[in-house]
Amino acid sequence: MDMSLPDFHRGRRLRRSPAIRALVRETRLTPDRLLLPLFVTEGDGVREPVASMPGVARTSIDGLVADVLEARELGIGGVLLFGVPSPTNKDERGSGAWVDDGIIQRAVATVKDRAPDFLVATDVCLCEYTSHGHCGLIDGTGRVENDATLELLAGTAVSHARAGADLVAPSDMMDGRVGAIREALDGEGFGDLPIMSYAAKYSSAFYGPFREAAGSAPSFGDRRSYQMDPANGGEALREVFADLDEGADIVMVKPALPYLDVIRRVADESGAPVAAYQVSGEYAAILAGARAGHLDGDAAMMEALTSIHRAGAGIVITYWAREFAREVGNI
Ligand code: PBG
Description:
The chain is of the alpha/beta class. 37% of the residues lie in helices and 16% in strands. Strands 1, 2, 3, 4, 5, 8, 9, 10, 11 and 12 form a ten-stranded mixed β-sheet that branches.
């Protein structure tokens, strides 16, 4: 009888035990690479669950502080804050976005006071603050005006910087906004403050639950005239290089799981730190599947987050940051 081994790859040798699998594991996402998005709203003692995102809530500043301290305790890299003003504080221009005593400015100042060494990033956009829900000014014909919006975004970023933000993250997708923000920050003495731009932000159905959380659904039309067409990959590189030229320090791809190819291209070609945002719809879809008993939610969470990191995202923004941090010891 011929006992020679067949000539094929024995990949299973390195999958035999947890120890050997750990030894050869190529990618290991750690909590310090995660940013946890949190929604802050007016009031006191407020914790309103977001129906479409189980486990996510809008909190007043006191609750936000508790969540931030917990995130710090868990070793999470930082938080990404979104202001949710009361509807009476919205107007056509979104002026609640940049006022010194706005919801986000007060929230940042309080959090930095309570946790000075913990990284606080802020989302810079107008859509939560405009009565029409668009990310910029609207002209007489219903179009979102690009250039006139830039100074408002720049003023918003400066107000976040004054409040003590460690990182500003423009998510509006107006052309030229990174340069406008950089110039304004430099001019106000915030030359050291980094910008994480939502560089390749797609016009995505996966933002649905967020718009409920932040109360930022457009009251007419959609965001396709400023957010990217999901069919485009090369264009993401143009957006990334434009933002880097204008002074972005970190570039983001958003959403994450449906755009792993874009994350990989951006990571390979830009040489810049790359963040990916696992958005509200990615979170809600997996949780809904888990709640219906169709899949193991924790395992799907770990797999999705690991895949986003494997694709090239050094930083992952996820509503699961706390659950991941708790789970990570057990894989
Ligand atoms: C604001 C903004 C959005 C998200 C982050 N910043 C919504 C949008 O563009 O409509 C989406 C985040 C998520 O879905 O989790 N411009």
